[in-house]
Specification:
The chain is of the alpha+beta class. It has one domain: Aminopeptidase. The protein has 7 helices and 7 strands, in the order αβαβββαααβαββα. Strands 1-2-3-4-5-7-6 form a 7-stranded mixed sheet, with helices on both faces. The longest helix has 14 residues. The model has no long low-confidence stretch (mean pLDDT about 95).
Length: about 180
């Protein structure tokens, strides 16, 4: 018998549109963020700096569905995390033992961030721009801390001086919502 973690696959892809376009549109009501040079941010965003993660789940009938998505864009010595979404109907469809395992891992958002943290840890920090209460709690559980800027949160990967941290925080704040 397979476990929840046997059925879950979290993977990075250069362009997750094939997997996550519908989930993203259902979650945010806007088109999927296809990796591109001019994505609307005031910084360079060439496609090779984008890292998109998807969470896939294979149910008991061997049907595979996308249950999570998140995007990271490398900018200088930081990653900008955005677009985190999880299928809001997924948890209710899980058998109780799998739900307990998923919950024990922190849920799909935290599991995706943990996977990405093992791979995207070559910068000093991740920054997020989060106004959703539930997402904010998941981010805090994943190691983010608030900054002095409303909605801007940071997860530090390197030990920096306060001055070095401030420089990165201000650089991320100048970008605006991402």
């Amino acid at each position: 018998m397979s476990t929840f973690f046997d059925r879950l696959k979290i993977m990075q892809t250069a362009d997750a549109a094939y997997f996550a376009s519908k989930l993203f549109r259902d979650s945010f009501g806007v088109p999927f963020p296809v990796p591109r040079e001019h994505c609307g941010l005031p910084i360079p965003t060439p496609p090779h700096l984008w890292h998109q993660y998807v969470a896939l789940y294979k149910d008991a009938n061997d049907s595979i569905r996308t249950i999570g998505f998140c995007n990271w864009i490398r900018y200088g010595d930081m990653y900008l995390e955005g677009g985190m979404c999880v299928d809001r109907h997924f948890y209710r469809s899980l058998p109780k033992d799998e739900w307990r395992d998923c919950r024990g891992g922190g849920g799909i958002a935290q599991l995706m961030m943990a996977t990405a943290a093992n791979e995207l840890n070559d910068a000093s920090a991740w920054f997020g721009y989060c106004g959703d209460k539930q997402a904010y709690l998941a981010d805090l559980n994943a190691g983010y801390v608030p900054t002095r800027h409303k909605y801007l949160i940071v997860k530090w990967f390197k030990t920096l001086t306060t001055q070095q941290q401030d420089v990165l925080v201000e650089a991320a704040a100048r970008i605006g919502p991402f």
